[in-house]
Amino acid sequence: MPLLALPAILSVRASRGAREARVRTLFSRWGLGAFLKPVKMGGLPSLRAGGDARGMDAKAFRTIFNVAIAAGLAILLVIAWLAYQAVDAAITSGRQETHSQEVLTGVEEIFAQSERAGAAAHRYAAYGDARSLESFRILANERVPKELADVVVLTRDDPAQQRRLDELQEVLREQFALLERLTMAARERAGRLPDYDKLGPLEERISVLAGDLRAQETDLLSAYRERAARTARDAQLTTFWGGLLTMLLVAGAWWIARRYDDERMLVEARLRAAEEGVRRLTDSVPGMICYLDRERRIVYHNRTYREVLGLSAEQIRGRHAYVVVGPDVYAQSRPYIDRALAGETVAFERVHSLPSGELRHLACSYTPDLDGEGGVIGLYGMHLDITERKRAESMKGEFIAQVSHELRTPLTSILGALEIVHDGIAGELPAHAARMVRIAHANTERLLKLVAEILDVQKMSAGQFEVKREPIDVAALVRQAVGASAGLAHKAGVTLVTPDLPHSAAAIGDADRIVQVVGNLVSNAVKFSPRGGAVEVRVELAPRAVGVAVVDHGEGIPRAMQPRVFERFLQAGSIQGTGLGLAISKGIIDMMGGVIGFESEEGRGSKFHFTLPRAVLDGED
Amino acid sequence: MPMPAAAPPLKRILQIDDDEDILAVGQAALQGYGGFEVRIAQTGREALEMARAFAPQLILLDWMMPGMDGLATLRALQAEPATAGVPVVYLTAAVSPHLREEALAAGAVEMLIKPFVPRQLVAELNQIWARCAAAG
C-alpha cells in the first residue's frame, strides 16, 4: 500500500466540508448514525492506516443493500407469479367461453334438427313422398344422435348437464319412435294417427330441456367471466403496489449506496487530512525523520530529511536507503538498521557531511515498527542535529582542561613546597608547625586528586579518555596500590590484608589506571570499615581473566542506593570524597574490556570486584 | 638498571618554566633531595644563553609557556650546539591526549606530569639519566 501519497487535498477538503455536514445531518435524522462512526485513530494516525478504518461501515452497508435487493427480487417474483395466474385465468376463461358456445350451438342444433325431423315426418304423413321419409330417418337416426353424442362429450365434466342430456336423449328417442309409428300409419292410410296427441307434451319437454341446458351453460360462462375479471383485477393491483414497493426498495438501495459512497469519501478525506497532519507535524520537526520498510525503502520522510540530504522528494520516496544516502553513510548505518529490523530499538551518533561539505554531528535512533503479531514491518528513523551541543560540550571540555591546568600549576608549587618543608630540606620545623604542614599537605593532595578526577570524568564524557592496553602484572600493581593506601588504612585503624596473593598475574591493561582503580576500591573499603576492621584484597586467576576483589566488613550499601553505585557524584552519608571514584573506576575497567561489579549487604559489608582479560590466552595488543 | 662505569653521574640540571614558584620549588627539591646543581630560566631565550655557559647534562622543560613555548624551545635547544645532545624532559601540567606522543616525537626523552612529588622527581630523573647513558 503506498504510504501517505499526498495529493493536494486541501481544496478537496474545502469543497467537501459542506457536503460532509449535510450527509451527517441526513444520516442522524434517518437513524443511520452508525454509518458515521468516527475513524478510530490512537494518537497519531498510523503511517500505514488506510483500509481497516471503514471496514465495519462497509459491512453494514452491504447487509442493508443486499436485504433491499433481495426484498425487491422477492416482490418481483410474487408479481410474476400473479401475472402468470391472471394470464392463465384469462386463457381458461376464453377456452371455457368457446366450449360453452359449442355446447349452446350443439343444443340449438339438436333442437333445430329434432324439429326438422318432426316436420319431415309430418310432410311424409301428409304427402307420402319418399324424400321426406328419407330426410326424417337420416335426421332421427344419424344427425340428432351424432349431435347429441358431441354435446355429451363436451359436457362430460358436468353431471347436471349429463342428466339433462340423458333425459333429452330419452325424450327424443320417444318422439322419434312416435314419429316413426306416425309415418308407418300414414303409409298404411290408417285414418287417424295413433298417439298423435302425445307429440305435443314431448315437444314441450324437449323445449324445456333445451332451455335448461342453455341456461346452465350461460350460468357457467358468466361465472368464468367473472373469475377471470377478478383475477385480472388482483393482478393489476398487485403489479401496481408491488411495482411501487420494488421501485422504492431499489431507490432506497441506490440512496444508501450513494450515502455510503459519500461516507467513504468522507473517511478518505479524513484519512488524507490525518496524513496531512502527520506530514505537517513531521515537517515542523528540525530532525530528520524517515520510515524504512522491510526492504529498506524509504517510504516516508520529512522536509528536514530531504533538506539535509539536498535531494528532492522524488529522489527519496520509495527508493532503497543505500541509493538515497550513498554507500558511505549506508555502511555506517547498516548495522543499526539490521538491529532495528530485528526488533531492537537502537541509538547511535555519526558525523554527516552536507552537500556543502560542512560536517554535522547527528544523534540517530531507529525504532522498529511492529505489526499486531509483533513482527517487524519497518523502522522509524530519527536523526537530530547535535552539532551545537557537541560544540558546547567540546568548549566545556576545553574549559575544564584549561581550569584544571591553571589549578594544577599553583597546586604543584604548594605541594612541592610543603613536602620540602615537611622533609626538613628547608630547615627543622617545630613539632606543632610540622603538624600544620602535614595537614596542609594532605589537603593539597585531596585537592589535586579532585582536580584529576574531574578531568578524568570530563575526558570520559568527551570520549577522550584513553587507556593503554599492554601486558601488566596485576599482582604487582595490587601490591603497589595496597602499599600506597597503607597510610590511610593505618590512620583509620583498619588492617589491609592480601591473602594468597599470587606471585604474578599477567593481564592486559593500563598499569597506572589499575593502581588508580584498586586505590579507589581500597580507600572506599577503608572509609566504610569500622575501626579495628580488616579489608581483604584478593587476586584470582581464571582461564581467560584475572579477577581482583576488595572485601570489607563495614556497613554495606543501602539497598536503595545499590542500583546507582556507579553513578557520578553519588556519596554515602557524610563520608568524605568526591563521589567520582567508582564512576571513574567503572569507566576505566569498561575501557580495558573488563567487568566491574559488587555485592553488598547492609550491615554485613561489601565486595567490589573487577576482571581484566588475561594476557597469555588473548594475545591482544 | 646498572650504570656503565664510563657514564658520569647526573649533576647539572637546567630547569625552564614560566612560573617562578615552580622554579623555586623545583630548584629546592632537586638540590635538597638530589644534591644537583640547578640553574633556572623563565624563558627559552634566557635558557639558551644560560646553557652555553652552564653546559647542563639534562634539561627540565615546561610545555605551556607564553611566547616561545615548550616545543619551540626544544627545537631551539636542539639547534644550539651546546645543548644539541642534551636529553630534554618535559614537566607539564597540561593533560591533553597524545601530548606525550607529540613530545617524544619532537625528541624529548620523557614527559613527567605536574604536580610532582619532590623525592619521586629526583628518583625519576636519575632513572631517565641512567637510561640515556645506557642508550649512549
List the helices and strands and how they pair.
The complex is a heterodimer of chains A (621) and B (136).
Chain A: H1 10-29, H2 55-127, H3 130-154, H4 159-188, H5 199-283, E1 288-293, E2 297-301, H6 303-309, H7 313-316, E3 319-320, H8 321-341, E4 346-353, E5 359-370, E6 376-385, H9 387-422, H10 431-461, E7 470-473, H11 474-492, E8 495-497, E9 506-509, H12 511-527, E10 534-541, E11 545-551, H13 581-591, E12 595-601, E13 605-613, H14 615-618
Parallel strand pairs in A: 8-10
Antiparallel strand pairs in A: 1-2, 1-6, 2-3, 4-5, 5-6, 7-9, 10-11, 11-13, 12-13
Helix pairs in contact in A: 1-5, 2-3, 2-4, 2-5, 3-4, 4-5, 9-10, 10-13, 11-12, 12-13
Chain B: E1 12-16, H1 20-34, E2 37-41, H2 44-54, E3 58-61, H3 70-79, E4 88-92, H4 99-106, E5 110-113, H5 118-135
Parallel strand pairs in B: 1-2, 1-3, 3-4, 4-5
How would you explain this protein's 3D organization?
The complex is a heterodimer of chains A (621) and B (136). With 621 residues, chain A is an alpha+beta fold. In chain A, helix 2 (55-127) runs antiparallel to helix 3. Chain A is built from 14 helices and 13 strands. By secondary structure, chain B is of the alpha/beta class. Chain B is 46% helix and 17% strand. Chain B is built from five helices and five strands. Chain B has helices at residues 20-34, 44-54, 70-79, 99-106, 118-135; strands at 12-16, 37-41, 58-61, 88-92, 110-113. Chain B has a five-stranded parallel β-sheet with strand order 2-1-3-4-5, sandwiched between helices. In chain B, strand 1 (12-16), helix 1 (20-34) and strand 2 (37-41) form a beta-alpha-beta unit. In chain B, helix 1 crosses helix 5 (118-135). The two termini of chain B are 14 Å apart. The model of chain B has no long low-confidence stretch (mean pLDDT 87). Chain A binds chain B through residues 401, 404-405, 408-413, 415-417, 419-420, 423, 425-426, 448, 455, 459, 464, 466, and chain B through 19, 21-22, 24-26, 28-29, 32-33, 64, 93-97, 114-119.
